[in-house]
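re: ur question from the group chat, yeah i did fold both. here u go
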Amino acid sequence: MLPNNLSGVLLRVVVSQGLRKYDERFFLCTQIQAGIILVMFRRLFLPVLVLAVGCTSSEPAAESDVLPHEQLLIAARNGDRATVGRLLDRGVAVNTPAEFGVTALWQACRKRHVNVAKMLVRAGADPNVTDAVWETTPLWMAEDPELIQLLVRAGARGAEGKLRAAAFSGSRSVMKAILDTGTWKESWLISAKANALLANREAAAALLDRVAGRALPVPAPIPQAELLQWEGAYQNDRLQTIQVEAMEGTIGIRLPQSALRSLAPRDRVTFDFGASTCRFEVTDSGVQQLLLCRGKHVRSVYERAAAEAGSATAPTSESWRRDATDTHRAQWARFRGPGGRGIAVDQNIPDDWDIESRRSVAWKTNLPGLAHSSPIVWGPNVFVTTAEMAGEKPLFQRGDVSEAAATEDPFEHAWKLLCLDHVTGAIRWQHTVVSGIPNSKRHPKSSQANSTPATNGEYVVALFNQGSLCCYTIDGRQQWQRDLGVLDSGAVTEPDYSWGFASSPVVHGKRVFVQCDLRNESYLAAYDLASGQQCWKISRDEVPSWSTPVIYEDSSGAVIVTAGTNFVRAYDVNSGAERWRMDGLSATPIPSPFVAADLLFLTSGHLPTQPIMAIQPERMANPGSQGAHASRDAVVWSRERGGSYIPTPIVYGDYLYTCSNRGIFTCYEAQTGVRAGRKRIARAAGSSFSASPVAADGRIFLTSEAGFVYVVRAGPDLELLATNRLGEDCLATPAIAGGLFLARTRHALMAIGRPRVSGAP
């Protein structure tokens, strides 16, 4: 494992070198992508990762051994022809990607190992497989002329962009390698010459003229009046901004922290820079957009006049209007919705959508800060929290994090509660609840705003890592605020391992309940919803956990159930008196308990055990037997393995579904625990899951950290209906309400739904 300081140095070196070489990547790469690079470095160069205490994956440790395709990748990177040949002879799949989509051919080309690349191409290596970080091909990574020719002749796409980029940089060796293959078209030469002249590469322009056998034309200057229409700021869904200015005959773009640079015009709406292209388009609603393309593929969409964080992309038409008074469809009032079960009814969410083309995308609103809290919905209002850090962007790292060292956030933060319009995504109101430097550290995979708010339709309550519990009216007036002190959640044995508080508040009746399992003093408390006064507070002999409690009704009244390392406990909601307790979970549980099919389901995934339990609540200890242990007769069924580490399972219909961190989706009979189906849903290398599954209309939605939403037909067959992209990382559990699937990604909240047919009810 690399020391933290060395890791930081390596990260800066890798990123800076990549940006020097490909400056257009500067604004394509977010901080999360930088974090991915670090993880990639560790995975590739240190293939056997040591998992830190308390950050154990939900899968057995044996799966971390170096797999055959990873051995091939390492050998290709090192130029080890003998090992590559031996592995290929053994039948190792040549195109199987390793972490983040990198293939053996990609690595061989990056390291200029020509002979190894030839072996891989002969073995059927696909020259068009892209990595998952920058979507770069082996051709894009190749700089050796022989390699470039090998790839182009093997069918590699992107030679035109490679030629334009080489012309702009003046790399005539790369240009000659492409041109000597004879695959070029005159249109390639013309656009490449425009790039060369724009960068004052006269020799490169002359080379292109010689190949063409004549003086190639260049696009005529565009009238200034026409260019002025494109001026202004454009912002994408990652809060990255491009400034466009009209120049003499062309446009200039200013990338983040970069000087103004002019672009080569291809036509009156298309401009080239390097291997990338800016294309201006007008949507149906008249909103001007800048599309960043590589080849024919749209990489990112930048909206006109969206420079301020929190600005909403308006719906394209009135077709997105919904009836917010339909209460059974328009409520998702807490973490995982009604009863914490993760299920919505009568929603008609589409199976597939497309973020880039806006197909089935009702709206998308940029949100400041880093937060993993989920959205909640009550009628026309959507509520969400965030933690916005001043100064540098917060460090974030997804996937199987190799070390549990806490992350410092030594900058001023603003913890905010926001209310958005369910129909348009516009921000109705927002308030900074508390500000200051965080009083506790966090895990690099965590955030300073993990807890999901809760509402009863009159008040909305939010709890922040900073220890602030607040209540606002539905229209945005502060009702009260309490300071709960430092919410320090982390490894008990390691003081420096502070991982961030995550349990969410629960509203029931006229009270709000919070479970605070901490390193110093753990407790469960109830507060009056209208005044904020403490109703009761019960100490708990528990170590930190990240589970959200659940409230259910039995024959004697309402009971609140908490999951903990030592015990699962039930408390009377009115007095806080302990009803019963039972052991059986593994350490530091993260998934939340929930009631479904008349059973209480509990799970945890911290190794060495990964238990799943189904309990009959009515068989628990008699009311009034405070502190009594529940009889094992109450356990309807249990399993020692298969429990989730982070995602909370879901019961839908007759089945219980669990999702492992690595995308293994398992189906059990809810009443018996018999396994009915099992499938790896996510095939992409490095796929990890933190968001809990949600369900509606016979389908289950699973969201990966990489921002892929897998739609699975409910039932033991686990039929995968569609795979959709959100376009950025997502660790928050989605909400489903009012006919919309609401996904909170790293930088935005987006709503997915079907357009209403005009005149339809």
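okk and heres the other one u asked abt
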Amino acid sequence: MKNKILTPFKYLTMLVMALSLTFLTNCSDDDDVDGPTDVVESEYENIMQTLADVGGYDTLIYLLETYPIDANGTLLSSLFSEDGTYTLFAPNNDAFLALYATVGVSKASDVSPAIIVSLLTYHGAGTVIDEITPGASIATVQGESIIVNLDNPDADGSEGSPENGTLLTGSNTKGILVSDEPIKASNGIIWDVGTVLIPPGVGNLLASILGTNAASLLISDTFSAMGGALQASDVFATEAQLPSLIAYLSNPEVMSTVFAVPNAVFQGAGISVDDFSPDEWYAIIAHHIIGEAGAMKATGDASKILDAATITGGAFDDGKVVDGMFPLMDDIDGDGTDDYAPLFIKYDAALAGQFGGGTGVLIDSDLDFLMGMSSDSAGFWNAEVLAPDAVVNVNGVIHVTIGFLLPFKPEPASNPMAGTWQLAPIQGSLAVGPSPTNFEWFSITPFVIAERECLYDDQYIFDEGTMSTNDEGDEIWTGQYEILTDGSTWIEKWQGVDEDQCGEPVAPHNAVNGPFTYEVNDDKETVTLFGIGAYFGLAKVYNDGELTSPADAPDQITYKYVGNDDEEDCHATFHVQIPNDAGVDGLATWQIILEHQDCEEETGDGDGQIPSIYADFSGIFGGMTYDPATNVYNFPTGSEAWAGVSNDNTDLYPFSFPKGGKITFSAAIQTVGDSVNVSFRFEKAPNPDVDPAFNTDKVLVTGATTDATPYTVEIPPQDSANTYSSFLMYLAENDVPVEIHDVVVTVNE
């Protein structure tokens, strides 16, 4: 059955229609009312002036002159001042004071304007009624009728036995006394009434909510917008046969805490009641209600986060809502029980007073506790700060929020591996060592990455896949996997080549058996590739060790996801532990760091760019000279004995030479017949933190020709614990200009 209670917003709609049919057309017929419709001559002017002249109606005059009755700002006072045939039932000042006391307000401005307008228009009729006839039904411009009590021979004035000819409205079952004689104005009739007449719809509502949390939302002018949304939600509740939120909040036996959104927030967010459907308002309003009073009281411990179950959803069950529009949340707070779409509450004294004298209590839907109000995709505003208590009612507490609280919903499940990945061109993206935290045996450096660009541009592609749950309850993603190398990748000696080099992929690691399949176990954080030749990062690494022959390639490899160390979640780090007597507990660990292809486009931070392998010797010091246009260096007479040049390509650092290495470069003397000794130095860090450090041997660059000639300097093995982040170059002879370029450092594996 449809809800028969009219909302204030429906009153306004009916009012506009009534005004157009009565006041504006000055209708003079009323089938329900007996009596003349012509105004008799009067000593008074129009109705408004008459009220002022007679006296005792200051409140009524103020209200009629203050509250607009349509979207154009039309006031009832302007209508009652015009020529016409009107009837006004006029409550005196005492009548309004009695009403305020009953409702629990001190003045009319504390009450929702929609309710005030509904009350005012219920006191007016568009015809002249100069006689109160028992049994008559007086049609008001508000849309609901005033009933005149029938002849009652047994009338004694007791409850339920109204006097003949008194009025009956929605607020009172007794008869409301009317003055014996009307006051005649030039444009109508005024009847004095000792009680404010309440429309039946409003009266029924008020009678059921006074003193409750519902009243704070439906009556208060502060929350009139939320009150309208609350009534809209009841339209949906009736149609969907769901519990009424108004009934819930007006039940004196059910305690609740309401986080009320004031009109200012609606206005600031640009939200009106019409912006959302009744079913949407049902879910939104319900999420601002906790099924117990005082649930938000904080302890003062800034580190403590409380959670409270809201009633968001469908059917009520002991003060909570289950099987609702927003699904139950799994054990969010770790207490072993399911949670109901919670709000999270904490106290931070440092925040008290930052938002207009707040208490320092923060409320949140998703545990991020972002300060202020921020827009989301739904166009809402997320409330974070709670003002002091606004109202304490018989069935709970009203708190004022500075914004809307969005129901917390988990992100839709998504495959963490879906998309295209490549090796991340960063230090340590390929590394091996004796434990998951120690990669001292080998950790790739930027200059080695550049040397292996053919590997770092390989693509590892996971389709979107499908999700299922295994027997252990783990979420599993499965799908197709493929490797794209563009015809060239890094191949090693175990694959049948003489030297490690870029070259054509070797079967079965040439995708001959692809496309492959994969399984991502979200709960165990593993990625398993199925198919002989399936891998990512480095082909030789598998769960049982390192391949020594392509023929031994396994039919599956499992990689353990161990984390993400970048802010944009672009990188994913995986480990594969393999048997190795030199490792901890007989296991060594290979590390592989992948980078999602989308990250470079989204972040624009340079991810995905292969660094230069060449040293940049442009940091001259001590009097050394350098011409960047020709790459010519000179050690002039008079320079400091320690004059030299430093490498400014910091992407090369740090260096480590546990097995030694070499430096290669090209050089040419500018004058035939001259020669100069070139040497290099590696230091822990730039001066003064230089130790440990070592110098290379000198290499003689001769001037037999001015054409550039390749040179090599060997680097002896160094302690594996030592790293070097300062790379220097020196010339031994003065005044011998020499062109030096394409300096590359290679680390032996």
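fwiw on the second one: The two ends are 82 Å apart (CA to CA). The mean pLDDT is 79. idk if thats what u expected
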